[in-house]
Structures are given as C-alpha cells and as structure tokens.
Amino acid sequence: MAVGLLDKVDALKHYLRELEKVAVAFSGGVDSTFLLKVAHDVLGDQAVAITATANFFPVRERSEAQMFCAAEDIRQFIFEVDENLIEGFCDNPPDRCYHCKKFLFRHMKQIAAENDLGCVVDGSNMDDANDYRPGAQAIAELDVKSPLRYAGLWKAEIRSLSKGFKLSTWDKPSFACLASRFVYGEKISAEKLSMVDRAERFLIKRGFRQVRVRIHDRLARIEVEPQDLDRLMAIRAELIERFQLLGFQYITLDLQGYRTGSMNEPILGGEAP
To answer: Measured by CB atoms within 10 angstroms of the end CB, which terminus of the chain is less buried, N or C?
Structure first.
C-alpha cells in the first residue's frame, strides 16, 4: 500500500476516534460499506449503521446492507421512507436531491439522538465534487460529517482499500437512487420506480454489471458499458418483450454507454434540464 494512502487511512481512523460515536448512513454501496467497516474496526459497538428503505432504492440494496451488518455483527437501524412526504420529490425539480437528502438525514439524526448514537456520518468522498450534487448542501446544513472526504480519499482509492480489507463491495458497480433515472421535471411515481427497478434487475440477472435504465415517460434509455453493447443486442428480442411487459412503450439503447450522472448533463452544460 502506498505511503500516501496509508497516511489517508491513518487520518480517517484518527478522525473517527475523535468523533467517539458514529451512526453511519449505510446504503450498502462501496463508500458507505468501507466507512462502516473502518468505523466498526476503530470504534467497535460505538459505530452503528442507519439504513433508509424506500421505493426509490433498489430492493437488492436493502438485503445486501442487512447481510453485511449481520456478517460483521454491526447494529443496524432501518427506517421506511414514503417519497410522497418529501417536499417536492415527486415533482422532480433539479434540486430534488437536496430535499430528499435533507429529509433522510433529518430522520437519521433524530434516530441517532434518540438512541445516543453520536453524530451521523456519510460516505461522501473526493469524487463527489465532480458532479451536480445539490444533496451536498443539505449534508452541510445538517452538519453531517464526511470522514472519507476529510481523509482526502478518492473513489479509486476506496475500491483499492476495500479490496485489501477483503470487502466484496470493492468492485461493486456504482449505485445511485432510482430517482436519478428520471429526467428533471417528469413526475416520479411508485409505478415508474418499480418499472425501472425491475428492468435493471432483469439486466443484472443477464450478467450486465453496470447498468442504468433511464426513463423518459414510457421510453426506456438503456446504458451499459460500451464493451457490453453487442452482448445487449444479442438478447434484443427477449429484452423488448420483458420491457414492454413492464410498461415501457419504446426501448432504446444509449450508444454513449453508461456514464454516471447522465441526467445532469444538460444542467452541467448550462442548458435547460
């Protein structure tokens, strides 16, 4: 392990020790899994997980998060979220993530306070500054700590460290909530969230690791890794049949392939969403 990376790990551990008690906002993704693992190694029972479940989180993520906590003997608090109670969420404005994060982290802070769990920390890292992330404002306003950013850790470094820690998430595909599949301004509904979730599960079961099914009304825009485009076309007939059964009228393939935050490209480019 490079000396610079060792220094970052030491800085992370030192910071967590200073916090004494932490409640990790735990989704089961690469970053929060690594953070929870290190926090539990450093603080023992004084590090716990808080996991939100909702229609806009894939079903598979909840079970993976629960299995990790059970395997590592980490106490976990789970709370259900009704997206209809989040201000502006279903209207899907460009700052949707701000309202959602504020709602989620307020609940997490309340759970932490009621159970004397210390401060709430999240898995934000250095890469998160490179995309449109209005949720970062909510995190700052609520004084949620971001130990990975404090330690100066980038995504690639977190993956490398996770591999060294023998965490199965080290090469897990990037995850974002299902609401990120909707073009801004399009109404978000439980029905359409389910369509996206089931469509992505279909592709994952067919062996595609990094996938996004972006939804534009009844049109599906599929993103996979560029090297997987030919393989996707090989199951074209089956894919069309399944997606139409799910409720999509048009099924399209994005020739640019998977890229994180593609729904933010109009905003970052200065155009209307």
So the answer is: N
Contact (CB, 8 A) for 92 and 186: yes
List the one residue out of 69, 85, 87 whose CA is nearest residue 77: 69
Whole-angstrom distance, CA of residue 69 vs CA of residue 76: 7
pLDDT tens figures, 202-224: 999 999 999 999 999 999 999 99
Give me the CATH number covering residue 187: 3.30.70
**Alpha carbons 251 and 243: distance in angstroms, whole number:** 7
Give the whole-angstrom CA distance, residue 84 versus residue 131.
26
How many residues comprise the chain? 273
CA distance 136 to 138: 5
Which distant-in-sequence residues (6+ apart) come within 8 Å of 135 by Cβ?
97, 98, 100, 101
Torsion of CA 192, 133, 52, 124, to 10 degrees: 140
Q: Model confidence over 174-195: pLDDT tens digits?
A: 888 999 999 999 999 999 999 9
Output helix, strand, coil percentages for the chain, rounded to the nearest 5.
55, 15, 35
- CATH number for the domain harbouring residue 92: 3.40.50.620
Q: Which of 154, 147, 102 is nearest to 128 (CA)?
A: 154
- Which has the minimum average pLDDT: 51-65, 123-137, 149-163? 123-137
Report residue 273's pLDDT band, with 50, 70 and 90 as the boundaries: very low
Domain span at 197? 178-268
